[in-house]
Structures are given as structure tokens and as C-alpha cells.
Amino acid sequence: MKKLCLISAATMIVVAPAFAADESTLTIGMTLSQTGSLNVDSVAQQRGADMWRDELNAAGGIKAGNQRYKVRFVTYDDQSQGGRVQQLYTRLILQDKAQFLFSPYSSGLAATAAVISEQYGKLMLVMGGAEPKIFELSNKYLFQGITSADHYLSGAVEALRSRNPHARVALVYSDDPFSKAVALATRDQAREAGFTLVLDESYAPTTTDFSPIINKIITSKADALLGGGHYPDGATLARQLYDQKANLQWVTLLVAPGNQEFARLGPAALGITVPSQWEIQASYKPQFGPPAAKFAKAFEEKFKIAADYHSASGYTGGALLQHAIETAGSIDTDKVAAALNTMDVTTFFGHIKFATDAKHHGLQIAHEMVLAQWQMKNGSLVREVVWPTAARTADILNRMQ
Amino acid sequence: MFGIVASIVDGVLIGSVYGLAAMGLTLIWGVMDVVNLTHGAAIVAGMFALYLLTSAAGLAPYAALPPILAGGFLVGVLLYWIAVHRMIGRPPLMSLLSTFSVNLVLIGLGTAVWGTVLFNVPVTLPGVSWQGYTFPGTHLLAAGLTAVMAGLLYLFLYHTRLGKAVRAVADNREAAELAGIPTTQMLSLAFGLGVALASVAGMLIATLFPFTVLAGDAYQLKSFVVTVLGGLGNPAGALLGGIALGLVEGLAAPFMPVSWTLVIEFVLFVAVLIVFPGGIFAFRRS
Known about the structure:
- The structure holds 2 protein chains of 2 kinds.
- Chain A is an alpha/beta fold.
- Chain A has helices spanning 2-22, 39-58, 82-94, 107-119, 154-163, 177-192, 211-219, 231-243, 292-303, 309-328, 333-341; strands spanning 23-32, 62-64, 67-77, 100-102, 124-126, 142-144, 168-174, 196-203, 224-228, 250-254, 273-276, 344-347, 350-353, 370-377, 380-387.
- In chain A, strands 2-3-1-4-5-6 form a 6-stranded mixed sheet, sandwiched between helices. Chain A has a 4-stranded parallel sheet with strand order 8-7-9-10, sandwiched between helices.
- Chain B has helices spanning 2-32, 39-55, 65-84, 92-114, 137-159, 161-171, 173-178, 183-208, 216-230, 235-252, 261-275, and strands at 128-130, 133-135.
- Chain B has a two-stranded antiparallel sheet with strand order 1-2.
- The longest helix of chain B has 31 residues, at 2-32.
- In chain B, 52% of the residues are buried.
């Protein structure tokens, strides 16, 4: 018996290092907005990424060739400030030796981080920055996993046209890079749809009182409002539209209504539509990773809140990087970038393909958005998919009904 | 035309609440020459106090005003002894740094507890509709309560012995001390009152708009503009300054993009500092 134990121990000593040598750690760096105005959406996105990492590590890690890598995240709070992002992404690369990067949340912060990631030749996945401009700068290692800003409101415009082909539209949006990019495209889409643009105005992202803007909307006799920005301003605008009884039949706001927290507004949330990168009801058949229902269930069990599109995009960012590394069979940046360049896949988040032409390299060209609306169901506020018709889970509700 | 009138009325209603917040700031400056940089945190404290008292304790929103006023006063007195008392009579930079540090600590604690998630206190009151424009009941009541608070402050400062003692300390601390007034207590009382007014203003703002832990900065900035308009150390001027600021915001909005409002406010701020360094409504301080 003693002899057997000795032989077992000796075998362990010889074999164990062989396993240990096979198992390394892959460091992914990112900042998130734990504080500041982008906190709600950024934290939701990070939860998705955390869940991907935990599931991956529990399953043994990423397999690249003969090597398996457990994933380690290095994260910092960027306080929703560009200055912090610049400093922290440099730190992530130089001091923390991050091998890959995830972008911070929002177009403005992602653009700042992209300067650093490209400068140091690090591959960065952008899952929370929709503005297309940063993909027009011939970046080699930047890849966008969500629909770009110029398509954000195209579904809302089509849906509105199906209800009211001669809508009088007020375009009111936050004065930030993402919202301005959305507004730029929506202006043309609305005119092409035959709408009359009766108000076209931006507001400061820090605006706390929307009364003057709402009075302008009422004066313009608009029957539809398109616009918004991020969470704090969008939620405040929705609350004041309700308080001031703005007679709008249609309201589509960016980002804010896509978050579960929006339900805190109670009746002010009812009827508001939001372009969404993903909804739980989405029925894409994934080529890899979990189906939507499985992801949503696991997410709710882990975090005790329902998944939204920010958390789904966070998870998908990880899954895309994993797929690219496994396809490349290597963690070499150029090989992984090459795998992403040829990627054409469907995940639970939707269809993903990146532009490879020099003028738009890394821009997302396959993913499509849906339009969701806050509706009352069994006494609770829920988001239903109302557009496109092929994906809808409920009919569009007229806000004034 | 109706739109312009509606915009002006809205501006005046919300401007009066800015005025209430600024009254707290200017009272403290007037009595002890301290620029209180915990002002924004006090406003946010009022907002969260309303949220907690209505959601956790089940109080009706406006029934929360007396406890918030009392709580704000006690916290203010405590803050005075922690951060301000030893700075009285020293260079203004000392009290600026001291209150700024306390502000950072308070906002940091708030962020740790609540994050920067948006909070909403749903308050619905019947409003007044006119030509398609609606003035929400919450806005009307906030302006009404501001007028009541301003009236009470006036009665306190001008018709009570304690109030007169506070004014005496503001006018000449040494003379007040020689007259037997316990000046240190009066200073802590004034600081408590200033913080209480800011907290009540925060509470009223929270009945109008959703808010975050970081919301105080914007209102603190507005308070500074209002204080300069109304004249430093002049509570009545602060109220008028707030209304004037709201009026300017309301008048400007129909004629130009609303994103210009901030620019106009700060141009006004600089212009008043240059032309009327004592404030537009700089009545005789007494």
C-alpha cells in the first residue's frame, strides 16, 4: 500500500506540471463606468462579459491549438470620463499586460480607447460604441459587434411610417457623438420616409429640466418624437413628457428605455419605444454559444435581474473573441484579427460580420436591430418587440390609447 | 406666442426652486463668509431622503418636508462642527477646501451605496392646462412651497430674537459677542439652516425630475449663478435671482437652441460680476 502511494505521488509530480504547462491565463483589459452618467448601461454590459468569463473558465477556458487559456479580466472604473479612459487603457496595455481589450461603454469613450489600442497594436472589440466614425480611420485591430449608429432609428422610422405616413416629427437628441451620429442619419431617413421634420434640436447631455424643449415640441405640433441620448437624460425626458402631457402619438428614445431600470418611471414608461440591439424574445439560431432563452435564464439566476441588450452585447463580445481565437488556433493578435475579418456567424445576439474594406474596416455590417416598446402585461410593464413584423411579439401600442 | 408665455411660466416656477437652493448657500456666506461646497451634496441628500421616506417609510411625498427640513438642519449643525468651525476667521481657501473635501466624501459614500443609477419618485398632482401646454401640479406646488419657505425664513430672521441674533452676528460678530450673543451657536444655527434649505430644495426638485447621486453638481452651479445675481449674502436677493434665472431660461428657449441656455447663464454670470459685483438685487444688508 505504501509502495502504491509512493508511485502515485511520483506520477503526480511528473504529470501535474505537464497539465499546468498546458493551462495558461489570457488577460483581457477594459474599463467600465462604475460611476458617472454611463453607469447603468456600462455595468449591465460588464455583467454580460463577466458571465461569459465565468462560464468559459468553468468549462475549461479557450482552446487555441493545443493550449487552453483561462480568462482573467483586469478592469478599472473610468468614471464615464474620456480622460480616465486614455490613462487607463495605456495602463492596461503597459502595466497589466492585457493581451486583448474590450472597449469602454459609449461611442465617446470607445473612440478615446481606440486611439490607444491602435497605437499599441492591441485588438479591441467594441460592444458599446455605435458611432461609425472610428471605423473610418483605417484602424486594423478594432471590431464593432453591434449595429452602428446610422441604422439605430431606421426601424423606428419604418414602423412609424406604417402607422402614420405623414408624421410630423420632432428630432430631439443629446449633444454627444453617438446621439449626433444617430440624428444625422435619421434626418435623411425621416425625409425619405415622407415625414415633415418640425423640430430639429440638440440638448446638453447634462440637461436636468426638459420643460423648455417639451414646450417647443408642443408648439411645433409634432405627433412623433425621435431622439434621446443615454440613460439619465432619456429617462428624465420620458418622465417630463408624461408630466407635461405632451400630445405625442409616438415616442422613440435611444438607449434609456432599453434598460430594465426604465420601468421605475411607471406610467411614464408606457408606450415608449426603443431601438434595441437584442431582446430576450429574439429567436436567432446560434452557431455557437447559448440560445437566447438559456442566456437570459442563466443571467437572471446569476444577477437577479433580467438581461437586456447591453448585457447580451457584453456576453457576445467575449463569445466572438473566443470564437476568433479558437478559429485562429492562436492568441497572436494578427491571427485573431484575421479570423475576425473572415467571421460571418450567427449568435443568440444576431448575425455578425465585419467590414473588411480599408475605408470601414471593423464596422459591423450584418447585425440588425429590433424596435421594442414598453407595454402593460398582466399589470406589469414589459418590453415587447413590435418591429420588424417578422420578429414582433406584440402589436404596436399607440401612446395616446 | 402661447409657447413663449408657457416657457416663461415654466422658467419662473422652476427658477423659484433654484432660488430656494441658493438661499441656503447665500445665508451661510452672509453670516460667516464661508462658500459652502457641501451645498450640492445637501441638495442630493434631500432628494434621497425623499426617496427613502416615500419608498421605505411609506410617507406621502409632501409629508416628508418637515422631517427633511429638521434632518437637514441637524446634519448642517453637525457639518459645521466637523468641517467649518475651525475654519472661521481663516483665509477663505481653508473653508473652501474643507467643505470641498467633505462634499467628496459624502458623494463618494452615496455612490458606494446607491451607485449612479437614476432614481425616480413618482408624484402626480393635477396640473393646469392652457392652450395645449400643461403646468404640472408638482411644479406649481414646488413654487408655492418655495414661497412659504422663503416667508418662514423672513419671519425667522426679522421677527424672532434668534433670527435677529443671527443677523447681528452676520453684521458684526465682535459687537454681537459684546452684546452677549453666543456667536458660535449662531454660526452653527445659520449653517444648519442653510443646509436645511438646500435639502428641502433637493426634495422639491426630486418631486419634479428623476435624479442620481451626482445630480447636486448641476444645481450647485445654478446656485452660484443665482447667488451672484441676487447678491452674496442676501437670501431675498437669492430668491429673486432664482426667479430671474428661470425667467431668462424661459425667455431664451423659444428663440434659440436650448443647448445655448447654459452659455447664456454663464455670460450673465460674468456680466453681473463685472457690472454689478454686489448682485442685481443687492439690497442693503441688515
